Fold this sequence. Notes:
Elements: E1 7-9, E2 12-15, E3 20-25, E4 39-41, E5 53-55, H1 64-73, H2 76-90, E6 95-101, E7 108-112, H3 119-127, H4 130-144, E8 148-152, E9 166-170, E10 175-177, E11 189-192, E12 206-209, H5 216-223, E13 242-246, H6 269-286, E14 292-297, H7 298-307, H8 315-333, E15 347-350, E16 355-358, E17 360-364, H9 375-388, H10 408-420, H11 423-440, E18 446-449, E19 455-458, E20 465-468
Amino acid sequence: MGRKNVFLMGDTAFLPGAKAAVVMTENVGFLEDKKFTATVITPAKGSSVKKEVRFVPFGHQDKLPVRIMKKIADNTIVGSNIEFKANMAYGDGLMVCRRVKNPETQKIELEELTPEEAPEIFQFISDSNYLRVMSELANDLVVFSDSFVYLAFGKRKAGEKPKVVQIWHREMCFSRISEQDEKTKRIEYHGYSSQWGEESFPDDVIVTRLLDRRSPLYDLKVRTGLVPDPETGEKKDEEENGYTLSLNMPVPGRFYYNRPYWWSIFLDWYEFSCAIPKFKKALLKNQMVLKYHVSINMKFWDKLYDSEGIPKDDKKKRNERKNAFLQQLNDFLSGEENAGKSFVSHFRYDQINKYEESDIIIKPLESFIKGGEYIEDSEEATNVICNTMGVHPSLKGASPGKSKNINGTEARELFIIAQVLFKPLRDMMVLPLYLAREINGWGKDIEFVIPNIMLTTLDKNTGSEKSIGNEKV
């Protein structure tokens, strides 16, 4: 039998002789909240905390945020959905309003303010570059259902009244939180570092005090001496230069880090969605029909290299051994003489996360007519992912085909419904401004609003414009 070359492309390989597609899989690294080994960190210069702090790792080996972002970048549907949802959360920007009662209707209304009417507030928003902060928060909340901001007071003199001068975003990928304090039963500290997930013990962690996630505004007023401490009954200002605020969305059963509902795609449909475009490329390039789909756990390669004594720094030998193994697999699956052979693969059962982890899985594929392979499978994977992420495929053209189009009215209704569902995220995005309002004394009638994007159409046979959408914010 003639020997055919193996095509290796990143985490995917194609075995022409066996007509098999191989995908190297990797567990995302979800961890249970209560099963971890804390990382002891010495705060870097610029921290408001000087003592060592024990931080909770974010996923297996503290690499979950990095892995999630890589998986988002590797899939066109997931990445596009994240961008779409972040833009929807951002809405039509930020609006500063005053809450007033209409003397005629006695209804509460929001009256938009101009920079001339509220110069201090608009200057604060400008100094903080808060529109950029909103965009950052939208992305974090969509991906992680959590984010952090730092309320900066600046350098304070003894006895000086606290005042928030700026709000800084703290990216979720570079944020970690400390273990629950045994006495207070609270998470007391936030650690910010560009080295999280890369270094075992980062040396640039900026440690700051974290406001109580249950009631951050009340906690801030207690810490700044605006209201009495419920434990002592006395007012006492801690005289800190700022505090970190968590904007985590409610996710049941998670104490330290959230696990958004849409992450369930990484357990099944995600890998299928990633593999289909690569398979299609192989079909077009090599004019072949696939007979097998082979999944190889990424950990299998390390076990193979270790068993043969191939060192980690010898990438050339490792690549040669990988190609040799894939060629052996190709030969094993190729030809009539191999029919009826047995294949043994080891697996282990993860007691913590409750799933089987196999080394190699071989699945036979049905034959398809060349040219139309995987179209329906691709549509199904796209629809499942979009549904799980809360994005209607028709809003972003994710479902191709003649019968998949919808009319303009349906699209506008879907767009309006989608904006309504972003209200909880938008509330989190403006929460830091409400804390600043309280500390800076801007007035309790001041409201911060992210308005919906209004759509306009031309009325039939009139030439006039008509606004479509909910004007309420």
